[in-house]
Amino acid sequence: MELKRTSQVDTGRINAALNVDAVQPPNAPAAKKLGVGMGGTEHKQAIGQVETEKRQTGAIDQTVGVHFQKVLFGQTLADVAANPKHLRKMEESAQVIGYLERLPGRLGSIATFKPNQAFKLYEYAFPNPDEREPTQDIKDRLKTYDKGANADGSGFFSLAIADKDRHVIGYTQGSTVPSDRGLFFYWQYGCVADQEFMKKSYGVDSNPREHGILNTIHGANAATLVATAKESKQPALGMIWESEPRGLGEDAESIQFTGKRLQIHNQAGGRVMMGMTAEGELVNLHLQPRLTADSEPIALHMMFRPLKYAEGDEMKRGEMPKADGESMLLAWVDNFRREGFAEKDVAEAEAEIRSRLARTEKIVLLPANEVPDAVTLAKTDELLKKQLLDMYDVKDLGAARKFYDQAMKAAV
Ligand SMILES: CC(C)(COP(=O)(O)OP(=O)(O)OC[C@H]1O[C@@H](n2cnc3c(N)ncnc32)[C@H](O)[C@@H]1OP(=O)(O)O)[C@@H](O)C(=O)NCCC(=O)NCCS
Q: Which SS3 state, helix, strand or coil, does residue 394 take?
């Protein structure tokens, strides 16, 4: 899930690849009204018994719309906050957010904002049509997942975030994906409106960025995952998404941006999943199958955000159970198969991911400042090397190093 900057990347196909075929979705029970009061707790009342479980509710939960409530089954965002900082950031965003709503199959049933503004924002944030999914495809898929996830936990979730004046200021989408070890959330992309979009679209001089909305997107993803995992009776593993390696851009601006975005993702709890061999070599584990016969497989990074972590841990090197990482990566690549990509191409990428996993002793989680740049990684990764030399339009890694260093120093 990234703003793809390489012309080879067809984001629409990638994202479509992670949406599994629909079977009959379970009927979602009517949502319970969420409790109110920042940082309060709510006692869950079940028929015939009183449950002792206490749930956190907060200001952010008061913004959750009726369609989103239907797939949360009473799960609150405050309760899935990864740590106190995450909760604070979500509460900060509640000062800006008026509505956090899932886009249902019938978009006309949303009364609180205009859903088309969400697609305008998406197109604004992803300006290259080759790099985004056609919005009609998203709308068609929403109809399939109108009631939420399938019985096996697989589902597609697309959310819009509106401010208190009912202007859409955020858009995000992702899928819950079952795997051998449990359910995980694959966040495909998300964006928050900037000052230019607010002026151009609504004639308002404000900037919703840097008010914690990305943190709320993570909260919404986590709540969706936990609720869907409970309903489909499987463990919830955490959230994954893609990000470009630092340096994978065509010019100074896009190269510098890869570094900044990695940093923002890291501050919001994401770390890069990397294999580590017994000798201590870092092995990048992401490989997207070639999408067409004349394109190449694409190497990005896969990021992981656990459901809970101690504040500050996101800035330290961590580790995850290798079986969990393996299970998510293989379920992720398998979805390209379900989506109908050429078996030969998916099998080739899967074989490469499996061989990389076989070389690794463990899977480490790297904060942004420990992630080697693309030129360093390319030394031991032929596919990344080819990708990088094409993008920089240089002949070897020595020239790539110069290009990268100059780009990072350039004033943009
Ligand atoms: C990336 C993006 C989603 C961030 O959204 P946001 O709501 O502004 O992020 P938050 O306010 O939750 O900030 C998250 C962290 O990143 C930091 N941050 C956010 N934007 C930053 C910036 N431009 N420069 C420096 N730090 C920044 C925040 O300070 C915060 O860190 P902290 O918690 O340690 O203070 C938004 O900039 C965007 O939509 N960009 C374009 C689309 C895109 O790149 N999407 C990425 C995923 S596909």
A: coil
What is the longest distance spanned by two Cα atoms in the chain?
A: 72
Give the pair of three-digit tokens for residue 324.
């969990």
Tokens of 336: 């390209």
Using the Cα atoms of residue 166, residue 239, residue 181 and residue 343 in order, give the sign of their dihedral. positive
Could you tell me whether strands 49-57 and 40-46 are parallel, antiparallel, or unpaired per DSSP bridges? antiparallel
Which residues line the pocket of ligand 1, CB cutoff 6 A?
A: 1-3, 89, 125, 189-192, 209-215, 261, 264, 267-268
pLDDT under 50: residue ranges of the chain:
1-52
Cα distance between residue 41 and residue 61, in whole Å: 12
Tens of pLDDT along 124-148? 998 877 668 889 989 999 999 999 9
100 vs 169: CA distance, rounded Å: 10
Q: Which stretches of 306-361 are assigned E, i.e. beta strand?
A: 318-320
Contact assessment for residue 261 and residue 243, using Cβ atoms and an 8 Å cutoff: yes
- Taking the centre of ligand 1 as the mean of its atom positions, its distance from the CA of residue 402, in whole angstroms, is 29
